[in-house]
Structure formats: structure tokens, C-alpha cells
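Justification of computing resources. Each target in the renewal requires a structure prediction run like the one illustrated here; the chain below, 539 residues long, is used simply to show the kind of job we budget for.
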Amino acid sequence: MTIELTVDGRLVTVVDDGVSLLATLREELGVRSAKDGCSPQGQCGCCTVLVDGEARVACVTAVRRVAGRSVTTADGLDPAVAVPLAAAIQESGGSQCGFCTPGILCRLVALGPAPDPAAVDRALLAHLCRCTGWQGIREAALRWRPGAPTSGAAGPPPSPGERVAPAPPTPVARSAHRPSPAIRRAAVEGRTPQAVGLGAVFGRGGFAADSAPPGALVAVPDGAGDWKTGETLAEARSAAGARTARRSGRPLTWPLARPPGEWAVSMRTTWVEPAYLEPDSSWCVPGGEPTSPFGNGGAFGGKRESPVATVARRLADEHGRPVLVLLGREDVVRMGPKRPPVAIGVRGDGSGVARVARTPGIAAALRSAAPGIEVEEVEVAGPPTSSALRGAGWAEASVVLAALRGGPGVTIRSPEGAEATAEVHCEVDLRPSRVRVAVRCGEVLDEAVLRSYVVGATHMALGWVCSEGVAVDEQGRPEDLTIRSWRILRAVDMPPVEVEIHDGAGPAVNGSDAAFAAVAAATWISQGCPPDLPTLRGH
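Resulting C-alpha cells:
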């Protein structure tokens, strides 16, 4: 059965075989601006499009429901409206990897210019942005105007009806010439080369799943250690078997016992999901080199050991044709590394004991910030862990030592030499209501990019201390597989963040990780140092 609809100004005929609008857009029509971040949870907002002018999440919309209707993706938005909004997002630091922003563009265009702040917060409830901490997006949404001049260098989106060519395997803003200051700062903060500009806001940063050759075989994990293939993503997922995404309702657990002793300060952490938006993906042709899973961002270190590139190379050689390997959102939660849980106790002189889930490199990371502690690595039943995640180990140690010094201002120096000072004010219910952060991390290069990363790190630090966690079962398997179950701070929950940037001596070094640790410490101290993180979830 076929149906007709209009997509970005073109009348198209598509197959209706029970698939979602997102699958039709991406796989049949080649529209790459609508992203698959959680399909079919309908919780990240990355696939948001306009249906007859109203925002709709495409991954939970059956294509048959839009028969005869008009669908507009970020590619088909009126440039006079979308480009000024995208430029405002870029200039305010509301975009980094660019995976979530095409959907947010559609949502905010539907909302219209000059909305009130409450309307913006309500609109953003349907979205997740893990990189930027929401503030830049909110600022852009409140100040953009259609037709306003822009300073973006990446150019406008294509005119309605123009088919977008697949993005190249590497981000579009890279070249043989010296990168711009913005690109250089983004690479320092994201720890991988990144595209910066309007193209990135429109989702053209070079994601592997967007650039796979037409007709590539699709492979997904089957949940039992193997991979299933299909001509389409839907076919591959069907072969792998349906796995339910759920919010378990199971309480959080703290897998490590507090070390025995009399401690001036102690802290335990639980399992936390990095929650990067782009699920791991890579494609490869037979005999070729696989594309990197780092599409246009560092995933906070969460993709350092991703299997997708190795699997793509192997399967391409086995099948003798291009293969695209994809993780779904539930696969990322089950297979992706978590921050190693810790249980730390320190005495007034900075000596103490840190118990931590056994993880390569984590003991050295803890000792780099707290040389006076004894580290005990413990075998823990749970998901994979990694010391590559943002500040893992040294941030926990720094937070506990900062509590010995007290507040209200907390200054932390990262192993790379960046320095961040944070002040966090919490209300009587212990919820943060105001944050100030000052950073010094070598040559600034680009203030908007650095500010974006600092606010994003602040958002992650507040969530880590206050609310975020993943429940696991008795065998250590993640039970909370839905995005909303992790309690990441929404736009409406995010307090205002004031960022002060100092131009430091020497080359640029990563400053957002230092900001993450300083904000986490200042938040925890302002709450009175409750012994278990997250502090506002309870046992």
C-alpha cells in the first residue's frame, strides 16, 4: 500500500507498511535532519517535525496518520525564519553536537517569535539537550526575530523541496587550513574535532548514520552478544527481536559500602548514564576504514571503547557490501559505559579511603586529585564502567576534598591545569536556584563556545549531584531504559548560570571538566554534604 504526502514542499508517494514517519523520512526519502535519538520512545525530541504547522515527534507517529498532510522538517523550514533562529542558537551557545537542534528548531518555529519564557520551557519539555544546559537555547528562543541578519558562515538550509545530500563522514567545518578559533575551542572541550556553525545547528555535523551509502545493510545488536542485519533498520530490529524500553520503578542502589572509619566527609555515588544524544553508529565498505562513532562531539568520553566501528568493518568484509551498524537507545544504556561508582571517606588532613568499581585507569585518576587517599578497587555486578567519562575519579576526589575546605565559593584545578570557581545557591528544599562559574583555561579562543560548554557542564554537575541515576537489577543489568527515567534536569528545572571567563596564560586546555567538578562540589557543599548522591532521590 502506498500513500501520498507533502514533505518539505514536495508531493511524494511512499510505502505504508506500518512504519513510523521517522523511518519513512530517513530511510525512504533520505531526509537526515530528523534524528533517531530514542526511537521509538518519543522522549528525546530529536525527530520533531511539523505536521500541518504543528510540532510532532516523528518516531511515534505512524506514517499512515499523515497521509495527505504536509510535513516540514528542519530542511524545509522557511530560511527567513529558520536561519535567524539557528544563528541565535549558535551565537548564544545553544548548539554543540547539533544532534538535538533540528528538532528544537522545528518546535521553536511552531511556537513563533517572542514567546514568553514559560511557553519556551513548556515547549522544551519534549526535548533533551545533554550538551548545552538549555540556557543558550532559551536565550535564543526569547530573542530571535524572523528576517534578522545573521553572522553565520555555514549558509542557509536548502530551499523547500531540495533533497539534502548525505553529510560527509567527517564534520563539514574541518579543512586542511588552520581551524577557526571556535572550532579549536570546541575540539578542546569536546576532545574530538567538531563542526561549528549554522550547518551544525541544522544537524549537518557529519553523523555516521546520516552519511552511510544508500543501500547499506543495517546491523543492530541482538541483546545476546551477536548482531542481526536487515535491508532496513526496521527489518534489522525485527530480526534482533523486540526489547521493551521501560521505566522500572526500581529504587536506586549504591553498589559500594562506605569504607569503615571515622570520616570528616564521606560520599557514595550510584550508576549514572552519560546520556549523550547520538546513539553509537559507524559504517564501512568492504576493505575500507569505518567511520568514527564520534559524529560531531566527544560523547563525554562515553564512546571511547564503542564496538560499532570494529563490527562495521567485520560485517562489511563478511557480506561484501557497505554495512551501517547502529545502537538503539536501549542498547546504549545496556552496553555503554557508566561512571564508576565510588564510596569515599576522608579525614580532616585529606587522607582516607576510596572504594571504586574496578575500572582501568580509575585508581590513578582518584590519586591525581587526592594523593593522600588509599584506593580499593572492587568487583561490582553492574554495567560497564569507564574512566574516560567526564572527570571520572578525579572529580569525585576533588568534590570530597573541597568539602573539607568549605564554601561558599569552591575552586578546583583539573589535572590539565584549568581552574574553575563556582558558587551555587540552594533553596530550603536543597534545589539549586542560582549558579556562578568562573573559568581560566588558557587562551579563550571563542567565548561563546567556551561558555556553552561551561553551562553544559554545569547542567551535568547539577544533575549528577541532585537527581540522576540508573536503577539496576540484582545481576547488575540496567533496568531504567527510558530517557525520562534518568531524571536529567529539564529546561524548566535549570537555574540561571552566570559564566565569567578569564583569558589565561598558555595554550587552550579543557575548562568544562573543571567547571563540572567545581559546580558539583559547590552544590554538594551548599546542600550540607548529604552522604549519598544523587541527593534529592532518596533510598
